Amino acid sequence: MRGVGVSPGIGHGPAYVLSVSVPEPPAGATYTGEADDEKERVTAALGQVAGELEARGNRAGGEAKEILKAQALIVEDPGLVVGVKSLIDRGLAAPRAVYEAFAKYRDMLAGVGGYLGERVADLNDLRDRVIALLTGQALPGLPTDPVEPYVLIARDLAPADTALLHKDYVAAFVTEEGGPTSHTAILARSLGVPAVVACPGALNVPMGARVLVDGTSGEVRQEPTDSDVARAVSEASARKRALRETSGPGRTSDGFEVPLLANIGGPGELDAALAHGAEGIGLYRTEFLFLDKDHTPSAEEQERAYRTVLEAFPGGKVVVRTLDAGADKPLPFLPPLAAEPNPALGERGLRLFRRFPDVMRSQLSALAAAAEGTYAQLDVMAPMVATAEEARWFAEQCREAGLTSRGVMIEIPAAAIRAESLVTVVDFISIGTNDLAQYTFAADRTLAALGRLQDAWQPALLDLVARAATAASDNGKPCGACGESAADPVMACVLVGLGATTLSMSPSALPTVRAALAEHTLGECELAAQAARAATTPAHARAAARSCLLGLARLGL
Ligand code: PEP
Ligand code: MG
C-alpha cells in the first residue's frame, strides 16, 4: 500500500488496528426528564472531557500539551455549548444534541478547508469522547505495555490518542485518512515516529499482521520478509547519511547537471522543499488551491500563492501545473458535462479547462501577474494532454496571457507515442509517470489491488518514457520527470539515462536521489536504462538497472 510519508524513518512490528466504535446516537432521540437536568449532564460531560484532555496534555508535555489545551477549549467553546443546549430545548436527548451540534461545527471547519479542514478528524474524536461519557460506553484504548512496539493503524488518529504514546511502544503510525498537516503527522514528527497518512486500505490490515512502514516513501508493506525489513532499515540509514553528506545541485559524478526539484501542493510545502535542498519546483499542483472551495479562488488569492512559490526560488525554475481537477479531484463548481461512469477517463485536467475558459484565463493571468518582478523562471504546463492539437491550443492560451515558457505533461500514452508532434509546439515537456502508468495499463491508480500494474518499472512504461524523452532531446527541448517514480533513487538514475533533464519529487526524497546521482556517470545511467528496458518484468528491470549502478551499494541503497 502507499500513502503519504509524513514522518521519515522505518518502523515495523505487529499491526494494532484502532477502530473507533462509538455508534451514532439515534436520530430524533428524546429525553424523558427535565431539560435543565439534561443540560447539566452535558455541561458535566463537556467539562470532564476538557479536564481529561488538559490532564493528558500536562502529562505528555511539549507539542501535545499545546494541542490538547486547544482541544479542551474547543470542547467548552461557548458557541458549541449554546448549540447543544438549544437542541436540548428542542427536545433532543443530550447524546444526540452533542452529535448534531458537533456536526454543525465540523461542517463549518470543513467549509473553511486547508489546515482547519484537517482538524475535522479531531472534532469527531472529541464528539465521541463526550457521547461515550454520556452513554456510559468505554472508548477503545491502546495497549499500554506491549510485548514489542506495534504499528498503530487507524482511520485517523486524534491527539488525545497519540499524546501519551511512547516511542518505545509504537514503531510507526499509519492512517487511512489525514493529511500532511493533520495532528497525526505533527505529533509523529515531534515524537520521531515514522508515519504514513492518507493510505487507502490500511484499515483492512488484520490485527497482529506484521507491517513494515517507510515514513519517507509512504510505502506500507504487509507481512514483509526478513530481507525486506533488513533492506528497508539499511536504506533508511543510508538516507540519513545521504542527508548529512550530500548537498549542492543535482549532477552525475561526471558533472552532467540534473536540477533536482520538488513536487508541492502549495506554499505550505516550501519549507520542506528548501530544507531538502530543492533547486526549484518541478510540479506545483495548483488544484489544491481550488479543492476546498466552492468557487474559483480570486485573482488576488491565486496571485499571492503563486508569487510566494516563485519568490522562494530566485534564479531557479518553478514549474506550475494548471488546474488538474476532475476524476479523483472533482470540484463542485466545475462539474463534468454529464455523469461519468469512469471519471479517470472523463473530463479532467485540460479537458475541463477547455470547457471553463474563464477559469483557465483567470489562472493564466494570475500566473503572469505573479511572475512580474520575481526572479524565478516560470514554466507553465497543462495536465492530461492527449494530442498535439491540445498542446498547441494550450500554448496559444499561455502566449495570449503573456507566459513565455509553456509546456505539457506527458501522462497519456497517446501523448508519449506522438511526443514528437507535441514537443515541437511547446517549450518543454514533463513526464507524469503516475498517470502514464494508470493509462498505459488501464489500471486505476487508486486501486491498491492493481498496484503491480502501477509499477513504474514495467518495461512498457519505460519504453514510453524513453520515447517521450528522446523526442524532447531530438528537438533540443527540456524533459522533466515529475511522477512519484523519480523519488526512487534507482529509477531516478534510469530516468536520467532515458533522457530526463530534470527530476521532481516529494521533498524528502531529494537527498537520497542527489546522493545516488552523484555516485554515477551519465554513461552508467544510460547503461542502466538500456538494461532495464531489455528486461521483461518490473523486478528484472529494477535488478538489471541496479547491476549497472554499483555506487548504490556504496550508499547502502
Ligand atoms: C503524474 O500523473 O505522474 C503526476 C505527476 O501528476 P498527479 O500525480 O498530480 O496526477
Ligand atoms: Mg497526473
Note the main attributes of this structure.
single chain, 557 residues, alpha/beta, Glucose Oxidase, domain 1, Enzyme I, Chain A, domain 2, TIM Barrel, 7-stranded mixed beta sheet, 24 helices, 15 strands, binds phosphoenolpyruvate, binds magnesium ion
Shape: globular
Within the CATH hierarchy, at the fold level, what is the topology of the largest domain?
TIM Barrel
What's the number of helices? 24
Number of domains: 3
The whole-number mean of residue pLDDT values reads 89
Structural class: alpha/beta
- The CATH architecture name of the largest domain reads Alpha-Beta Barrel
Beta content comes to 5-15%
Tell me the number of strands. Answer: 15
- Widest β-sheet, arrangement of strands: 8-9-10-11-12-13-14-15
Can you give the helix content as a percent range? 40-55%
CATH superfamily of the largest domain: Phosphoenolpyruvate-binding domains
Question: Main β-sheet, in a few words?
Answer: 8 strands, parallel, barrel
Describe the structure.
This protein has 3 domains: 4-20 and 140-227, Phosphohistidine domain (Glucose Oxidase, domain 1), CATH 3.50.30; 35-135, Enzyme I, Chain A, domain 2, CATH 1.10.274.10; 254-554, Phosphoenolpyruvate-binding domains (TIM Barrel, Alpha-Beta Barrel). With 557 residues, the chain is an alpha/beta fold. The strands form 2 sheets. The chain has an 8-stranded parallel beta barrel with strand order 8-9-10-11-12-13-14-15, surrounded by 5 helices. A 7-stranded mixed β-sheet has the order 1-5-4-3-2-6-7. It has helices spanning 35-60, 62-75, 78-89, 94-112, 114-117, 120-135, 159-162, 183-191, 226-245, 270-275, 287-291, 299-311, 350-355, 357-371, 388-400, 413-417, 419-423, 433-440, 459-474, 489-498, 510-518, 522-534, 538-548, 551-554; strands spanning 4-7, 10-18, 150-154, 170-175, 195-197, 210-214, 220-222, 260-264, 281-285, 317-321, 377-382, 406-410, 428-431, 479-481, 502-505. It has 24 helices and 15 strands. The chain binds phosphoenolpyruvate and magnesium ion. Magnesium ion (MG) is lined by residues 383, 411, 432, 434-435.
